[in-house]
Amino acid sequence: MSIVNPGKGYSRDSRYITTRITADGRDGFPVEPGRYRLVVSRACPWAHRAVITRRLLGLEKALPMAVAGPTHDKRSWTFDLDPGGRDPVLGIERLQEAFLARDPDYDRGITVPAIVDVPSGAVVTNDYAQITLDMSLEWAAYHRDGAPELYPAALRPEIDAVGEEIYRDVNDGVYRTGFAKSQEAYEEAYERLFARLDRLSERLEDSRYLVGDTITEADIRLFTSLVRFDAVYHGHFKCNRQKLTEMPVLWAYARDLYQTPGFGDTVDFDHIKKHFYVVHSHINPTGIVPAGPDPSGWLEPHGREALGGRPFGDGTPPEPPSAAETVPSQRVPS
């Protein structure tokens, strides 16, 4: 949910439901395979983090996933991709129904990712930042064999520090740029965004990953913004000093991750573009969804292997996604 003040800047409404699903059930919701349903949209960068993390850790069976359509109205995300327009497990048409089942007077954002308790039909949490950390820490008993450590204890302070900079200046920064209601607010967010991207480029010039020599939570947080940059943020949000493809280090880094199992195979450019260009009618009143850019460049060689690093550390890549979870635009015709 966001707040845009006329003539001023943009402020994200961060009043999330912070109940946690934990191994010991201290918040009343113990980790139980099959009990919960992760609701996402493939369009949403915040939900995309959870999709990638779930894939890398192999939690598909323990934490089943519902995919909402790429667009929504003021009421909430809808399950228009499912037969009859209802999620087949929760039996609801709108994610809003699960939030109201938790609190009939709920007046905050209906956001994804959200985890729903299937027996009660109520949302447990939509605290996107904690959701992925808890997938790593609290759901460890159900990780696949060979699952990577995405949030290793020794690196957590650095991951948290880098992640906070990425959130403030990049993840949220593109929205503060795109939703600015004054030239001053726009230029401030724009400058902070590209200053941070420049510093990240310097950090990654001689290091394959952001923290340590393996993929961590920090890389996931940056990737979901980079993969949307040229398709959406550059034009739609006026983040146009350069395209990602014109920033050599970040473009190679993003391609490296895209070509890593669990990253590119979760990307749906069709959903991404449809969401931003249709839902943000105040920015794009015509509702026209651009045909480009050509995504084939994401598969070009990146050369980042020369920097060393081990994507999964002592672990292994995840298996290819199941047929049910393969991104529609990436399905091979039978």
UniProtKB/TrEMBL annotation:
CDD domains for the chain: GST_C_Omega_like
Where do the record's region annotations for Disordered lie? 291-334
Coiled-coil regions listed: none
Instruction: List residues of the GST C-terminal domain.
Output: 126-276
InterPro entries linked: Glutathione-S-Trfase_C-like, Glutathione-S-Trfase_C_sf, Glutathione_S-Trfase_N, GST_Omega-like_C, GST_Omega/GSH, Thioredoxin-like_sf
Q: Which Gene3D superfamilies match?
A: 1.20.1050.10, Glutaredoxin
PANTHER family linked? GLUTATHIONE S-TRANSFERASE OMEGA-LIKE 1-RELATED, GLUTATHIONYL-HYDROQUINONE REDUCTASE
Name it. Answer: Glutathione S-transferase C-terminal domain-containing protein
State the organism of origin.
Streptomyces racemochromogenes
